[in-house]
Amino acid sequence: MSDTTDDSFIRLGWEEWLGLPDLGLPTLRAKVDTGAKTSALHAFDIETFGSSRAPKVRFAVHPLPGQDHLSIPCSATLIDRREVTSSNGETEMRYVIRTMLDVGEDQQWPIDITLTDRATMNSRMLLGRQALREDCVVVPAEKLLRPERSFDVYTAKKIRQTAPNRALRIAVLSREPNNYSTRRLVEEGDRRGHTVEVIDTTRCYMAINSLAPEVHYDGKRLPRYDAVIPRIGASITPYGTAVVRQFETLGTYCVNGSEGITASRDKLHAHQVLARHRIGMPTTAFAASPKDTNNLIGLVGTAPLIVKLLESTQGKGVVMAETKKAAESVIDAFRGLRANFLVQQFVKEAAGEDIRCFVIAGKVVASMRRKAAGDDFRSNLHRGGTAESVRITKEERTAAVRAARAFGLNLAGVDLLRSNDGPKILEVNSSPGLEGIEGASKKNLAGMLYDQIEQQVRPTPLKQSRVSGAKG
């Protein structure tokens, strides 16, 4: 490693421009130290995850010295855990990963590097002698011999273009681990190299405070997740949304937020949201007093009418009244049970069919037509209905997207009817099932959802002005 001017050698100064592209760190100022055997990368929030057969480690890096407002999340396969003695004589156990080192001019090779907190060091990375190839020459009296790089790569547009796919730790909030949708989310996540854990929502409990809010599960604090996919059952909506709200407080990306889940689950609230956004829906009425029954029916129109419990799901608690007298009887029966319900126009021309639009990130990615079984007016697949892929109109697509957006849902199953005066939104489902629509559309909808999650949990970029002066 003596000094030489031979062009076949890679010359490095004692401080150098380097990159770790596989970690999403294209630019680093590193100290090159042949006195150190191992290499080290500044990392914090270090956490292992994944199976014992293929353990992974994730961590965060501040690539700009003295500018901790930029944090780059990273993950890598864990290859070792070893004892390392630093220059001041202190010994610690460190995780070891293997990643590509980029020294510029198309020169890259894999290196082993340990993870440690270097917050007090001037350089974010130390390059030790084990990482140097035989054709590397270190010139101790000089620095920054490699091509200059700019920290501008960490601005908005560039960082999103260069961020690598990294292994994520994802929680699916579900009480049904063997449910088709839950299994598909786990399988697709595993296929992409992520770690997906199914968490029973009702077994979560929360430490609620302003300094260190936490979510606990079976006696232990849950780890930090990159994303949470809520699949909250109707029977546990209040508690389930409280758990989602706690993850939101922690800053975890939740595919659907607690407010959207709550609003969409309550049919009265949901129809008020749709009305506020001027989205087409069947004429709907609600009243609490039994004295208002006749007027309530009159607000909706003539029989037949639909009477729905406010928290009905999968067609349960939904009744069609063929005549006004039948409607009065159903309403009286629901009131006798002290149940909350609404009365809704029956769209006869829909002929027992509705359309489920599957919306991800503001785009209808699949749609199917569901047809009721026999004489049933309810087309739910859980009640024996059938489904087939269907081409929807531009107007229907727009209505579905607007409905999902009105609730702030990144994932939604929007049910609509085809009426003589345009699409009518029936329901916006915040936990839509995958089985029926994946089967009908022949599309990998679980994969499309992961595309959206991976896009959302990429590093948060900085504005140009905040990094433009950060050259050293």
Describe the structure.
The structure is a single chain. With 472 residues, this protein is of the alpha+beta class. Among the domains are: 10-160, Acid Proteases (Cathepsin D, subunit A, domain 1), CATH 2.40.70; 169-263, 3-Layer(aba) Sandwich (Rossmann fold); 283-346, Dna Ligase, domain 1. Helices cover 23% and strands 34% of the residues. The protein is built from eleven helices and 27 strands. Helix 3 links the parallel strand 17 (227-230) and strand 18 (253-254). Helix 3 (237-249) packs antiparallel against helix 4. The longest helix is centred in the middle third of the chain and has 13 residues, at 237-249. The chain is elongated, with a radius of gyration of 29 Å. One of its GO terms (cellular component) is ribosome. It comes from Pelagovum pacificum. This is Probable alpha-L-glutamate ligase. Residues 271-454 form the ATP-grasp domain.
Q: Supply the CATH class of the domain at 10-160.
A: Mainly Beta
Q: Please count the helical segments.
A: 11
Percentage of residues in helical conformation: 10-25%
How much strand? 25-35%
The CATH homologous superfamily name of the domain at 10-160 equals: Acid Proteases
Tell me the total number of β-strands.
27
The CATH architecture of the domain at 10-160 can be given as Beta Barrel
* Biggest sheet: strand arrangement: 2-3-10-4-9-8-7-6-5
Q: Structural class, from secondary structure content?
A: alpha+beta
In round numbers, the mean pLDDT is 86
Family: In the C-terminal section; belongs to the RimK family.
Pfam families: RimK, Rimk_N, Zn_protease
Organism: Pelagovum pacificum
Protein name: Probable alpha-L-glutamate ligase
